[in-house]
Amino acid sequence: VTVKGTQADGTPILDKVLVNAVDGSVVARLPTIHTAKNRELHDLKNKTTLPGTTVRTEGQAATSDAVVNNNYDRLGTTYDAYKELFNRDSLDGSGGKLISSVHYSTKYNNAYWNGTQMVYGDGDGSTFSNLANSLDVTAHELTHGVTSNTSNLEYSGESGGLNEAMSDIFGNVVEYYGAGKVVSDNTWKVGEDVYTPNTAGDALRYMNDPAKDGDSLDYYPDYTSGVDVHYSSGIANLAFYLLSQGGKHPRSKTTVSVTAIGIEKAAQIFYRANTQIFTASTTFAQAKQWTGQAAQDLGYTQAEISAVADAWSAVGVT
Ligand SMILES: CCC(=O)Oc1c(C)cccc1C(=O)O
Ligand SMILES: [Ca+2]
Ligand SMILES: [Zn+2]
Predict the structure, then answer these.
(1) Is 207 in the pocket of ligand 1 (CB under 6 A)?
(2) pTM listed for this prediction
(3) CA within 20 to 30 Å of 190's CA: 29, 50, 77, 177, which one?
(4) Ligand 1 atom with minimal separation from the 144 CA
(5) DSSP alpha helices (H): ranges in the chain?
(6) Opening angle at CA 249, ends 308 and 228, nearest 5
(7) Ligand 1 contact, 205 CB (< 6 A)
(8) Using omega within 30 degrees of 0 as the cis cutoff, is the peptide bond preceding 210 cis?
(9) 155-183 pLDDT, tens per residue?
């Protein structure tokens, strides 16, 4: 890795090159790391009137608030992941501003997308530590922005469960990218780095075993319209996990065996479906059909296309 310059805020712009060990000649120039852009951070100082004081915009140096600096970096990683993996330029595909407000209210155990921007609470130190520090939470919130600019999945009913699942899925795809494209147990946990700081190993949600949180669904026949979208998301989260890693339903709700295609191909399929095929009223059955369509559009093999259908069958979407 060579430094080919520095950004306005002093951080180096790195160039990844493959060098011949014998004579030092450059063999190949790996894709340069895109620098994020259009980040705009606000400090709510524990009030709730959005957006709050502007404290750090794109290219500005780090501030004295580690939460601001961490969220700025998480937004940068999220921007870079969307650009590198899907060639998407920000929320709207054309460099739209990433507006984020931290220190919302007091001891607030939530983070949310309000239709225009991301908002993060500090947590109460028991249920959550500061949510703005988390990469998969930040990417979850930013993905609500991507979804609202594309499929615009209605935030209720089956489409609401899919909306939430898109955010959990791409929240962890970004975390996987940020970890150097390495899959670990954390890739399938949601919010693990800020959830219950005094309890190790747990998470807000579990994509590989949704029912582990005591509320989330892992089987479509159990779905009813009264289920919170953060729980019905488990149906699609588990389908994505099984498509990525292969295997069978963790609680034997079905016996379907899914062949793994890997997280990157699974992510390309779900990204294309969410941004180019899904409508605002997409159902789980349509998600099965349209993720299959996306796999076909991407030119994947028949076996890979079949694996998509199997993943949804495994969670009871026939
Ligand atoms: C993983 C991020 C997440 O789920 O954030 C929320 C929390 C913690 C509470 C209420 C809503 C949300 C959300 O963004 O959907
Ligand atoms: Ca995670
Ligand atoms: Zn959400």
Answers:
(1) no
(2) 0.91
(3) 50
(4) 14
(5) 66-86, 135-148, 157-178, 229-245, 263-272, 284-297, 302-314
(6) 85
(7) no
(8) no
(9) 999 999 999 999 999 999 999 999 999 99
Report how far residue 287's alpha carbon sits from residue 284's, in angstroms, rounded to the nearest whole number: 5
Give one DSSP letter per residue of 212-275, joined into a string: GGSS----GGG--TTS-HHHHHHHHHHHHHHHHH-B--TT-S----BPP--HHHHHHHHHHIII
Does the beta carbon of 137 sit less than 6 angstroms from any atom of ligand 1?
yes
Rounded Cα–Cα distance for residues 177 and 110 (Å): 24
Nearest to residue 75, comparing CAs of 92, 50, 97, 107?
97
Q: Which amino acid is at 31?
A: P
CA 200, CA 305: separation in Å to the nearest integer?
38
Query: 42 an active-site residue?
Result: no
CA separation for the pair 57, 36 (Å, rounded): 11
ipTM (interface pTM): 0.98
Is 304 an active-site residue?
Answer: no
Please name which ligand lies nearest the alpha carbon of 195: 1
The set of residues, in sequence order, having a beta carbon less than 8 Å from that of 64 and lying 6+ positions away, is none
Whole-number Å distance between alpha carbons of 128 and 130 = 6
The residue assigned the tokens 């990844």 is 16
CB of 141 sitting under 6 A from ligand 1: yes
Q: Which ligand 1 atom is nearest residue 171's CA? A: 1
